[in-house]
Amino acid sequence: MKKLITLISAVLLFISLSTNTSNANNESPVTSDKQGRLFLKQSLGHSHNDYYQRNPLHYALKANMFSIEADIFHKDGELYVAHSRDEIKPSRTLKKLYLDPLNKHFKKHGSIDTEHPFGGQVRTSGLPLILMVDFKNDGLKCWQTLEKQLAQYPNLFRHVAIDNEKTTITPAPVIVVASGQRPVKQISKATERFVGIDGRYSTDYHSQAPAHLMPMISTSFSEFLKSVGSQNPNDILIALTDFKSAAHQKGRIARIWATPDSTKMWQLLYQSGIQLINTDKPIQLAKYLNSQSQRSNTSTANAEQNLNK
Q: Quick one: signal sequence residues (predicted)?
């Protein structure tokens, strides 16, 4: 770990301290288009294993995390939120911990809103949400059950319908992405679905799959470093930037997981422009991201003052 932290520090020496000004005018940091592509104007947070938080979902929404992650098991026709089988509890279903609460937030904020770019909102900021579900067993049953459950919440989850090669995407404030044991072939062939696929860096980096099918591509930090094949700080920075740019060009979200949960790591990822910063500390990460946004606003204001002199 010390070697890794030293490496991160070395990378940061190569990064300009200039701030990201892309969201300085209070514009939404996330936009989408009719093809379902997602574009982020700055790095946002991903609440890893969100169900381990003292108050699942609540802290992530409060911290304005763009993405939250829940591991799920299929058992007797139900989906349970747990990291391992021995953690399965009757009270901790996906519906109870996430789907029902999200629906309450959706209704609290007015339900469907045709004027909103994402068809409504589940939080005051209006930022949409990615709900990543990590299938821990029997991916096909997990997906089939998940699709049935999501259909019980009209207009809450983004929906994709394909008819005679025509794709109709119904925007919604929550975008669901399947990771883990994903039944890729079945999801890809579905003519109607709520769920997209978390792509894998090793095999899907150059994938031509549409963004509505593959909204995200992920890899672990250790595997990413192996793929770089170098410990030269500049090589790592270039690879991070390339990953972010390749994802952005196709309207996908780039995510690196199992990163050190430290300010130095957050700084590295933020300055490289990677779309999602993985964390088990959503409140602390939110404070860091807010501080970066404030610096951006200050820099922009100073630049405008200088231009007006």
A: 1-24
